[in-house]
Amino acid sequence: VSLSSVPCGKHTDNTMNPENHPTTTHSKVISHVFFTGTAKQGCAGPPLGLVDIGVSDIAYIFRISLPGIAKYQDKIKCEIQREGRVCIQGVVPEIAIPSDSGCLYRMQVQQLSPPGPFSITFNLPGQVDPRLFSPKFRADGIFEVVVVKLGVRIPTS
Q1: Three-state DSSP class for 156?
Q2: How far apart are the C-alpha atoms of 136 and 155, rounded to whole Å?
Q3: pTM of the model
Q4: Which residue ranges does the record annotate as region Disordered (predicted)?
Q5: How far apart are CA 88 and CA 76, in angstroms?
Q6: What is the spatial distance between Cα 1 and Cα 71, in angstroms, rounded to a whole number?
Q7: Across-strand partners of 121?
């Protein structure tokens, strides 16, 4: 993961809203899908770009849902600016699914984010020091970053 404080490229607000992504119904492929329990409360697949932001006295933490990207984390670019603007860019890879018979499957029903480039931009609640951050890409597809607030002195032990 590369992090920098360079201004991010163009972004549109619909990149953060998975409801704005086009959906396709393939009624001939899947006739019925039923959910129970906690699966019934959410959507069919984990959406790309859901953001949670936490605040402490000295830092902010943000977590972003990036399902299917963990193996390609070296291609994710995260830019943090002093005023608290964060831009994450990357590419959802096209993945062919092999079977035991040697066939490759191409997905007709796309419940996860479709392949291609993406950009997620949001603002933290305040200014930060973009040099003081700690990124971590978790195995569950969550990209987590802690960044220190601007002007805060970090206590030493």
Answers
A1: coil
A2: 22
A3: 0.65
A4: 1-23
A5: 7
A6: 11
A7: 87
Q: What is the DSSP string of 58-99?
A: SEEEEEEE-TT-GGGGGG-EEEE-TTSEEEEEEEEPP--EE-
Strands 77-80 and 85-92: antiparallel
pLDDT in tens, 91-103: 887 777 777 777 8
> Distance between CA atoms of 148 and 155, rounded to whole angstroms?
12
* Euclidean distance between CA atoms 116 and 45, whole angstroms: 17
Q: What is the CA radius of gyration of the chain?
A: 18
Q: What is the pLDDT of residues 127-144, one digit of tens each?
A: 999 999 999 999 888 999
For the range 28-37, what are the long-range contacts, defined as Cβ-Cβ under 8 Å and sequence gap of 24 or more?
A: 29/108, 29/109, 30/109
CB 51 within 8 A of CB 64: yes
d(CA 157, CA 155): 7
Nearest to 29 by CA among 111, 98, 114, 108: 108
* Contacts (Cβ under 8 Å, ≥6 apart) of 112: 45, 46, 48, 67, 68
Beta bridge partners of 62: 53, 145
